[in-house]
Amino acid sequence: MRSFSASSYQLKKMLSNLSVKRMTVLGFALVMTPLFVTLLYMAEQTKAISTKGSESILSVSELIDANRALNQSLTRIERFASQYIVLKDPELLERFSVEQFKLDSIIDKQLMTFGDIELNQELTNLTNQLSFISQLLPDLPEEFNELIEVEKHFKSINTHNNKIRQRTNLLIQEAAIDIRNQANNVDEVILKSLLIVPISMAIAAIFIHLITAPLKRLITNIKRLEQGKFEQEINSTGSSEVREIALALDTMRSRLHALELQKSSFIRHISHELKTPLAAIREGSSLLSDHSLGALNNGQQEVSDIIVGNVNRLQQLIEDLLSFNVVLDSSSLQDAEKVYIAPLIENIVEQHKLEINRKNIITELVMGSGYILCNRKQLTVIIENLLSNAIKFQEQNGKITISASINNLRLTIAVQDTGLGISDNELPLIFDAFYQGQSNLDNTIKSSGLGLTIVKELVMRLNGSIDVSSNLPKSGNTNKGTIFTVTLPKAFTAESSS
């Protein structure tokens, strides 16, 4: 058993190492060969059965014709013999002899050829009886002058003829049964031939698996790269073409991983280097702005306010760069955990309470119970950025609705506002890095334009999707505003997890 398993493994390994072209040709040959052999076998068997059936039908036809000819000849012989006894005409005796010769020919050339022992015995008896009558007719004694005497001799002939007829009928029935059996044999051959179809399909399935399995593994590796998971090496067995692709993918993975680490390190380093002097500038500008170092005239106060505003903007840019670094850091994607949706969203809304109250915005939360398996930090960044974006473009006394529902193991989060909306021209651009939407609102701090880019990148890496729809404020249009809908997998309700 162990030897068989080892042989099977070696065979599978040998087949897997073939090129895709050779494996395809080999698979096609192995699939078609049994079908071709079966087709030849079925054709040969059908031909043999058909030939045998034709011979049986021909023999039945010959037997029927011979039996009919025998009966007709015996009838004529009996008539000629009876007429000769009455008329004593030599011509009738000659006709009797000619008909007897024909009868002997029918028996020898047609009936005797079937090789049936019982039939041949009756035919011999019939021939002997006729020979006796033919020898007796030319020199009939006086007591043979009556027809009744002739009938006595022909009675035994008729008895033999009846036995011959019964035997030939039996032979005809046996031939008919044989023909029926041959027809059944054709059906049996066809059914046996059909058994090769599952075998060919199994061979085809094996080669399809051998060809597609390495490709599926490559697809899985490519999707993992798409999600930013660069840590795991790409090792794929299979054909030479698949191994070459796997090697190229692994080389690309290594380079992407190195670039990822460099980017993360650079952003962390530059952010740290910027924060140190920025803190000093912010502290100094604050001292100037609140007159801690002395009173300022109007011009000086205006310059001080500009410095404070730009320092705050620079601080926001640095924070956005650090958030964007979360997207670039693929290692954080590995820390998946059970995250309950409702408490997370409530906590995020609470953290933005000051901004919400400043614009007197009404917030409505529509959430069910459930959780999702993902990275908590990244899900938090997604919801925070969508909420911040909604607050930024929301007018005074507006409304923001956040809904979360789980259906078919997928979490759907919708953030809807009643703000200015997004034009059709801007919709394709809002997820581009550093793009800032056109807003008529007076926002003190301008954004970096990275928020929605971060959201889309994180959603994609979590195998999710994001959609956006928007209505601009128009006369009579009460459905103005924008709604962002995020869908993520691996979500469970309280009922499905129990």
In short:
It is found in: Membrane. It catalyses: ATP + protein L-histidine = ADP + protein N-phospho-L-histidine. This protein is of the alpha+beta class and 498 residues long.
Please name the defining characteristics of this protein.
alpha+beta, Helix Hairpins, Four Helix Bundle (Hemerythrin (Met), subunit A), three-stranded antiparallel sheet, five-stranded mixed sheet, 3 domains, about 500 residues, Heat Shock Protein 90, single chain
Structure description:
The chain is α+β, with helices and mostly antiparallel strands. The chain has three domains: 174 residues, Four Helix Bundle (Hemerythrin (Met), subunit A); 95 residues, Orthogonal Bundle (Helix Hairpins), CATH 1.10.287; 163 residues, Heat Shock Protein 90 (2-Layer Sandwich), CATH 3.30.565. The protein is 67% helix and 10% strand. The protein has 13 helices and eight strands. The strands form two sheets. A five-stranded mixed β-sheet has the order 2-4-5-7-6, covered by helices on one side. A three-stranded antiparallel β-sheet has the order 1-3-8. A hairpin with a 2-residue loop joins strand 4 and strand 5. Helix 7 runs antiparallel to helix 8, helix 8 packs parallel to helix 12 and helix 11 packs antiparallel against helix 12. It is rod-shaped, with a radius of gyration of 52 Å. It starts with a helix and ends with a helix.
